[in-house]
Amino acid sequence: MKKFGKVAVTAMALALLAGCSSGNGKGDKDGGTQATDSDGNKKYTAFMAVPGSEVPDDSRLNNAFAEEFGWRVKVSWLTGQTAKERIGVMVSGGEYPDIVDASDGRSAMIDAGAYIPLEDKLDDYPNLKVSGK
After folding, report:
1. Which of 58, 75, 100, 65 shows the shortest CA–CA distance to 4?
2. Which tens digit of pLDDT belongs to each residue from 64-75?
3. Cα 16 vs. chain centroid, distance in angstroms?
4. Which is it for strands 42-51 and 99-101: parallel, antiparallel or unpaired?
5. Residues 17/79/114/36 CA torsion (nearest 10 deg)
């Protein structure tokens, strides 16, 4: 559980610092609205380019996120592929999770234009801006 907690914190940080587009910037698969579960919690997806095991949707950490913040994350991991291979599949398909730790496949994500620039969105979150800028 300690390892998953670190990964979850990393995933949250990645969500704030480097977003990914779904379908080459055309919004979510359901027409631009955020998917929600039956309880009204926002559902996010994440991919970590390291080996790991799937975590149940009703894990203590996901339940705590849902209770405190109103969202859940479905995290997937490398399973029998390298990071470059898995990212290559994402790039060729043009569909990406909400949060990606691309590891060795980062340059392929950049070349494909998969990352969303967040600079223009920082005005909405002044606590994330560097002082004096």
Report:
1. 75
2. 999 999 999 999
3. 9
4. parallel
5. -70
